[in-house]
What does this fold into?
Amino acid sequence: MENIDLVSEGGKAFDAVNKWLSDAKSSEYGFLTAAYFAFDQFNKGNRDPLAKLLTVASGKKAKRVKIIEGNKLVFLAPLKRLFKHVLPHVSAKFNPGSDFGVAWTISKAANATVNTAALETLGNYAALDKDEAISPFGKQFKEAFPTVTVEPKAKDEGEILKAKVESLRKWADKEGINLAHLVHALQAKPQA
It folds into this structure.
C-alpha cells in the first residue's frame, strides 16, 4: 500500500476517517438488531443466523464461514451475555465441520427453548431509533442483561477420585515412577 500524503490528500483522509467512524458506530448500534433477528430466527427454528454470529464473533472458521481464524470480535462478550439470557437451556459447541460452525444442545428438562421476556427486551432495544439506540457495552444494556453466574456442578466423590487417580497416573508416568511403588507410598502411614 502506498503512503498517503495527508496534506494533498486531506479530503480523502478525512473521508476515510469519517467513513470508518460511521461504520464502527453503525456496527455497534446495529449489533443489537442483528442479535435480535438471529435469536428470533432461532425461536422460529432457523438456527443458521445465530450460528453465524457466534462463529464470526468467536473468530472461528466453518464450512460456510471464511474469516481470519482467531480474531475474536468485541461483540463476543455481549453476545454470550444475550445467549445466557435468551437461550438459558441451550448450549452451543463449535463444530468446524458444520455449515456455520455450531452444534446445538437443548436441555431436555426445559419447557421452552427461548426466554421470550428476554427476547422481547432485546427486540425493544433493537427497534430504537439511531438517536436513542443503546450500546451493547453500556450501562443500560448491562442492567437489562446482567452477568449470569452459573454454579459449578457438584462432583461426587467418585468423580473427584477418578480425576485425581488419572492425574497421579500421568504424573507418575511423566516422572518415571513405578505405579506399584506409588500405591505402596500412598498406603504407608505418614511419619511424624
